[in-house]
Amino acid sequence: MNFDDTPEEAAYRAEARAWLEQHARPRGEDTHQRGGLSDAYSEEEAHHVKEAKEWQATLADHGWAGITWPEEYGGRGGTSLQQRVFLQEQAKFDAPAGVFAQGIGMAGPTIIAHGTEQQKERFLRPMLRGDEVWCQLFSEPGAGSDLAGLQTRAIRDGDEFVVNGQKVWTSSAHYSDWGILLARTDPDVPKHRGITYFLLDMRSPGIEIRPIKQITGTAHFNEVFLTDVRIPAENVVGEVNGGWACTMTTLTNERTLIAGGGGDTFGELLSFARRFGGTDDPVVRQALASVYMRVEVLKYLGWRSQTALSQGRPPGPESSVAKLGYSALLEQLGDVGVAIAGPYGTLLPDNDDELRSWNQRLLNQWSARIGGGTDQVQRNIIGERVLGLPGDVRVDKGVPFNQLPK
Ligand SMILES: Cc1cc2nc3c(=O)[nH]c(=O)nc-3n(C[C@H](O)[C@H](O)[C@H](O)COP(=O)(O)OP(=O)(O)OC[C@H]3O[C@@H](n4cnc5c(N)ncnc54)[C@H](O)[C@@H]3O)c2cc1C
Fold first, then answer.
1. Known catalytic residue: 254?
2. Which atom of ligand 1 is nearest to the CA of 145?
3. pLDDT grade, residue 183 (50/70/90)?
4. Per-residue pLDDT tens for 198-239?
5. Max Cα–Cα distance, the chain, nearest Å
6. Which atom of ligand 1 is nearest to 366's Cα?
7. Which among 5, 10, 101, 384 could bridge 105 via Cys, Cβ 3.0 to 4.6 Å?
8. Rounded CA gap, 337 and 326, in Å?
9. Closest CA to 246 of 148, 388, 152, 128
10. Whether residue 90 sits in one domain with residue 195
11. Are residue 269 and residue 371 in the same domain, yes or no?
């Protein structure tokens, strides 16, 4: 592992930092995790989306959006390491994040890898500039961890496909322009082989979006009902019935995205503990030390894969455990933060963003522990692909989808 930037990386970091200092808002002591828990949530959300679009356009106009994307589609043609360096520097500023995760982070790389030239021309630039927001229509009431068991049907009708079914947990569907959609196009073959990957205009007739109110009080995701929705055949990504390969590209990018969360989490927790006089309490000190160790372990894990990228090697097993480690950190942070506040941890005062943000972290910890593959599923992946343990029992292997019990 190498802790130091190479001279080229240091120069890139300095360039990124200088640009951010000129264009981004500094991160102040009053910068707390936003969102949730207030009646004005939808207004706050609309404001956040607007700010995020403005910031994304600024990034794109100055060549900092899509650092790893090809230049011909508006990217910078850089390396994954350069992207990581930029994100590390950006995290030190108050830059709005999250709105473009499904688009730039997941749909974009999938279109680049599997899309037609026409799809790349049409979709990539508006996505990168934040002009079009995307959502991910994968999960269904009966298909989450077992995503390939999805039942939404798409039937070909001339130059179009007609789609019927239901999706659920669709983050941001209520303000998205486009969605990546998985639907079953051949039920006569084993489940992974009959799925097609579509690009769906979210304003198509037949789409009904119903928000789901969460434990946090917000409605970040939705149920999406699809009734006779027509999608032009030119919006199929990859091969008809070959959507699983594209899905893998999307899901790998999703995991990496979630594992890459962070910021100065320990510093924020420490200052919160100081505010409540907790740093003299031996139990709180022990909890702080435990969080500190976890943050440090994750930092070194990140540096390991950063070193691999820097030396032109693909990241090894450490990136597979990063998502699981990050979700465990969020669980611990939420629990410790609210415990530090004692009875105040149950309050949601409108005039105290810091207290609200820790309450939000407690309730929101399940996002990362479930989304992008649950903790249990991550453990299965690590067990099978990293440790080489025997695989999960798969009774549906090789059985045509329409012969599986539903
Ligand atoms: C904040 C958030 C945002 C999301 N956004 C989106 C989105 O935008 N688009 C989208 O399509 N989906 C989204 N999801 C859905 C997410 O991908 C699914 O919730 C997730 O894959 C789990 O599926 P499930 O909810 O159906 O749970 P299930 O798969 O039914 O799992 C239930 C329980 O069983 C366990 N389990 C299941 N299979 C196994 C196994 N083989 N071995 C051991 N344990 C197992 C799970 O770990 C879990 O504890 C989001 C979820 C969250 C939390």
1. yes
2. 29
3. very high
4. 999 999 999 999 999 988 888 889 999 999 999 999 999 999
5. 72
6. 53
7. 101
8. 16
9. 148
10. no
11. yes
Residues 181 and 231 in one domain: yes
Is 353 a member of any domain?
Answer: yes
Of all protein residues, the one whose alpha carbon is nearest to atom 26 of ligand 1 is 144
User: What's the predicted TM-score (pTM) here?
Assistant: 0.91
| 179 close to ligand 1 (CB < 6 Angstrom) | no
Pocket flag, ligand 1, residue 170 (CB < 6 Å) = yes
pLDDT of residue 303: 77
Atom of ligand 1 nearest to the CA of 138: 11
CATH number of the domain at 203, please. 2.40.110.10
What total of structural domains would you count in the chain? 3
**Among 254, 268, 318, 354, which one carries the catalytic annotation?**
254
DSSP per position, 97-146: -STTIIIIIIIHHHHHHH--HHHHHHHHHHHHTTSS-EEEE--BTTBSTT
